[in-house]
Amino acid sequence: MSAETIFTKIINREIPADIVYEDDQALAFRDINPQAPFHVLIIPKTAIATINDINDSNAAEVGHLYVVAAKLAKEHGFADDGYRVVMNCNNHGGQTVYHIHLHMLAGKAMGWPPYQDTLKV
Ligand code: 5GP
Asked: Taking the model in full, what pTM does it have?
């Protein structure tokens, strides 16, 4: 499943974004609503809707998102202190844009677990 989202428009320069990295497979730009001093979204140029749509034929593109995260961490000085990468899936995961994206959050120590509510199973 793949449908055009606002991220396709960012890839095609139809709407502006603060782009920090680009190569033939991926684009990284600052999140419009940052949750850390450094919060970028690393996306594949191919529109893959959710984690459920990852398969053997697009796995290399998805793996490449982590290569970009490692590059950005070194370039921006976060590699040693550390950082967090997160990919949300569907409603319970908190996904709002249906073009997969790796959130890269850095520049502060983050808590764990990420949820605030009491776990009820
Ligand atoms: P999700 O909730 O799908 O994991 O993350 C979507 C992210 O995209 C959110 O953190 C949101 O702030 C960001 N976002 C949504 N629309 C735009 C936009 O037009 N530009 C940028 N730079 N970020 C966006």
From this structure: 0.95
